[in-house]
Design goal:
By secondary structure, this protein is of the alpha+beta class. The chain has 2 helices and 4 strands; from the N terminus they run E-E-H-H-E-E. It has helices at residues 39-50, 56-63, and strands spanning 12-16, 24-28, 88-94, 101-107. A 4-stranded mixed sheet has the order 2-1-4-3, covered by helices on one side. The longest helix has 12 residues, at 39-50. The protein is elongated.
Length: 108
Amino acid sequence: MLEAATNPHLKSMTIAASDAIPWPIIVHASSINLLFVTVGDVLTAVHDALHTLITEYEYQLVLLPNMAVGNRYWNGMMRLSLLGGRHWWAGLSRSQEGPEIWNLHLQR
């Protein structure tokens, strides 16, 4: 978990979460002793971001346009609920948007 998450090492990275959730996940090195983002930093940041309660704005942005899930009440829902069952980690890939931008891949 203390291994570098990227090569070359990065002090921070942005994860473009997925098409299901439109907000980025920002990952920073977790310790002043480590000058780079570790695998543990990435896993913790993704976990924390997906286990955050969604806001009313996020509900309106993501759920309301989708009639299949738009009837659910947003209060108390976690972002994880927006993934439509895609909870299995399938990896990260470099984005074409820059060296510090990565895409999160999830599967059912």
